[in-house]
Amino acid sequence: MQIFEMMGKNDHEQVVYCSNSESGLRAIIAVHDTTLGPALGGTRMWNYATSEEALNDVLRLSRGMTYKAAVAGLNLGGGKAVILGDSRTQKNELLFRTFGKFVDGLAGRYITAEDVGTDVRDMEYVRMETKYVTGISKALGGSGDPSPVTAYGVYVGMKACAKEKWGSDSLRGRKIAIQGAGQVARYLCEHLYSEGAELYITDIIDEKVKRILETVKAYVVKPEEIYDVDAEIFSPTALGGIINDDTLPRFKFEIIAGGANNQLKDENMHGKKLMEKGILYAPDYVINSGGLINVSNELEGYRQDRAMKQAEGIYEIVKKVLTISKEQNIPTHVASNKLAEERLRRIGGIRKIYSGYSTFSGRLGELSTM
Ligand code: NAD
Asked: Is 146 close to ligand 1, i.e. is its CB under 6 Å away?
């Protein structure tokens, strides 16, 4: 009964518990909403303390995917899976192939991909048992590294914020502080540098910074100092929870637009505080949806040029979110949730009950449907 109550709280459609003694697999797949299409979302492998903690996480993450896909204009629903275990010591072929069998059993209602604790290799094992998996290598017909597409989406989303804030979307001469010098940041820096922005970068690993400096010019700051940089734009592209009570009072930024997930430590409180401080915040799941756009393109036969074109649409989506926020005087993350819910309601009318991927005949991504 407790599980039904938890599912009912946010209207989850289906939760599947997977258990197999031979492989040691213990996993939960959550399908939150298939109004717009098959539920796509990655598989997280994590050492959860209890199965209840794992259930909570998979319910929260799968719901997040519904919103992300909906606001990105994709014809996909929201789903997610968690495998209970230590990703450093308990991963093997049998585990992921067994998991793949369970995914296959859902006949396309759920499509998986990699997430924290899983990688391309693991998904290739899953692929041996089911076609309902994305995020596999280019050599095997997949989309490979999503970072170039994610970075491009963050870049155009940032430009949309600049347009709103300063009346021009040019980033020439703008001071931009970027937290994290990983895959997404690397491509993002290249776009920003080509446009003539002044960059401030940081990472906890020096080699990552050095690699970026091979292609762009940037000032390097210490990890803790990034929050104090006197820049106009802050781009969190490393880890979540970095907009919090400690960092927020230090911000002199006018815009926050970055690739990291879950940037607001407390969604409601810190989202509201940013608004009160006059800082324009591009909701993370909107601006970093290029990653999802990228893997969703695998379902139609991957082409990076098409994924990039779709990611370009993030500019207009961010503009829409900012307009709703301004008109209704609500924080931007609330505005993006509204936009997602509105699309679910509108399109839900024609796809009330989704009956399986094999019968799905619509296109998987159409930004023009927004
Ligand atoms: P990545 O691992 O390549 O890069 C993250 C970088 O952040 C690493 O270099 C790491 O050393 C650095 N870092 C960690 N803690 C730090 C700290 N305290 N200060 C400064 N740097 C720190 O990851 P990525 O693929 O570039 O992704 C970056 C973020 O964007 C992640 O939050 C990820 O979840 C999110 N994201 C990525 C994609 C994608 O396509 N890769 C898509 C959507 C969201």
From this structure: yes
Pocket test for ligand 1, best of 239, 286, 304, 314 (most atoms within 8 A of CB): 239
Domain that holds residue 81: 2-65+76-140
* Distance (Å) from CA 240 to ligand 1 centroid: 9
| 117 lies in the same domain as 151 | no
Whole-number Å distance between alpha carbons of 246 and 76: 37
Beta-carbon contacts of residue 165 (< 8 Å; ≥ 6 apart) = 254, 255, 280
* 215 falls within a domain: yes
Residue 199 inside a domain? The answer is yes
Is any atom of ligand 1 closer than 6 Å to the C-beta of 179?
A: yes
In a domain, 343, yes or no: no
Give the catalytic positions in this structure. Answer: 80
> What is each CA distance from 102 to 27, 70, 123, in whole angstroms?
9, 26, 13
Question: Residue 240 CA: which ligand 1 atom is closest?
Answer: 32
User: Final residue of a domain: which of 140, 174, 189?
Assistant: 140
Residue 142 CA to ligand 1 centre (angstroms): 22
Side chain identity, residue 19: S
Cα(209) to centroid(ligand 1), Å: 13
Per-residue pLDDT of the chain (370 residues; tens, 9 = 90+): 589 999 999 999 999 999 999 999 999 999 999 999 999 999 999 999 999 999 999 999 999 999 999 999 999 999 999 999 999 999 999 999 999 999 999 999 999 999 989 999 999 999 999 999 998 988 888 998 899 999 999 999 999 999 999 999 999 999 999 999 999 999 999 999 999 999 999 999 999 999 999 999 999 999 999 999 999 999 999 999 999 999 999 999 999 999 999 999 999 999 999 999 999 999 999 999 999 999 999 988 899 999 999 999 999 999 999 999 999 999 999 999 999 999 999 988 765 555 554 444 455 554 433 3
Please tell me the residue having the least CA distance from ligand 1 atom 9. Answer: 182
The three-class DSSP label of residue 33 is: strand
